[in-house]
Amino acid sequence: MSISIGVVGKPNAGKSTLFSALTMADAKIAPFPFTTIEPNRAVAYIRKPCPHGEIGKQCTPRDSSCVKGVRFIPIQITDVAGLVPDAHLGKGLGLQFLDDIRQADALIQVVDASGRTDLEGNASEGCEPTLEVEFLEKEMTHWIAGILERNWAKVGGKPASALYDVFSSMKIGHAHVEAAVRKLGLPETLNWKEDERFAFAEEMRRVKPVLIAANKWDIASGTRRLMDRYEGNVVRCAAAYELALRKAA
Ligand SMILES: Nc1nc2c(ncn2[C@@H]2O[C@H](COP(=O)(O)OP(=O)(O)O)[C@@H](O)[C@H]2O)c(=O)[nH]1
Ligand SMILES: [Mg+2]
């Protein structure tokens, strides 16, 4: 099974543009919020030198192709609808559609580093990109808390290991569940109160690696704080240019 990456972020940040640039698949792109409603799914390829050169034996790849010594490793990319602040209260398209990326191994958050769209994706000026990261973390925690709540009737009163199933459906392992229970000092029996469940959801949210794509770099102005605060976790990009280059190629 190939690695799967979910593309998330607020509306109008450039998620579908990045998705198209990565996969060359068509996706609706437009300068207004909620162009994407149904998820776009396609495959991107990471290029690595094929190990057959090193081993000195011809390869017989089953799930990827080898072209002149370069292995094209498939990565499943899913582009979902945009998230807005208070999505967990039903704002925008809500949070339910995030279930399409439950199985993602990692996420890319596309941030509009130009500061020219607000958190709802409407044209504006001087917007602060770090706020995008903050609100998305909060909404993602609410999403996971929602999954936990929906399963609570099933697992309540059982040992904490009953949560393994709930979180393996999100590709989160036993060790992460155990570590979070220990870190938060939660009871071994699932009689947790609501605030404890929410704190646990927050820990589960931290498990999935998130790379921040500081997009619209061509017109970016507000990346300094983004780079300072999330150092090492931010990659600057101009998805629209990447897409144009790939099409030209
Ligand atoms: N200047 C600039 N605009 C971009 C870039 N990437 C995307 N956009 C524009 O941002 C708008 C929203 O893009 P879209 O991919 O539909 O955003 P989504 O709602 O997050 O999927 C479109 O007008 C894109 O052309 C970029 O790198 N630079
Ligand atoms: Mg989109």
Helices and strands, with pairings:
Blueprint: E1 3-8, H1 15-23, E2 40-49, H2 52-55, E3 65-67, E4 70-79, E5 106-112, H3 129-155, H4 163-168, H5 174-184, H6 194-207, E6 210-215, H7 224-229, E7 234-236, H8 239-248
Parallel strand pairs: 1-4, 1-5, 5-6, 6-7
Antiparallel strand pairs: 2-4, 3-4
Bound molecules: guanosine-5'-diphosphate and magnesium ion.
What does this structure look like?
The chain is an alpha/beta fold and 249 residues long. It has a single domain (3-248), classed as P-loop containing nucleotide triphosphate hydrolases (Rossmann fold), CATH 3.40.50. It is 35% helix and 18% strand. Strands 1, 2, 3, 4, 5, 6 and 7 form a seven-stranded mixed beta sheet that branches. The radius of gyration is 20 Å and the shape is globular. It binds guanosine-5'-diphosphate and magnesium ion.
- List ligands, each type once: guanosine-5'-diphosphate, magnesium ion
CATH architecture: 3-Layer(aba) Sandwich
Strand content: 15-25%
What characterizes the major β-sheet?
Answer: 7 strands, mixed
Order of helix and strand elements from N to C terminus: EHEHEEEHHHHEHEH
Q: Provide the helix percentage.
A: 25-40%
Q: Given this structure, which CATH class is correct?
A: Alpha Beta
Q: What is the 3D form?
A: globular
Number of E strands: 7
* Total discrete domains: 1
The average pLDDT value, as a whole number, equals 93
- CATH superfamily annotation: P-loop containing nucleotide triphosphate hydrolases
Radius of gyration over alpha carbons? Answer: 20 Å
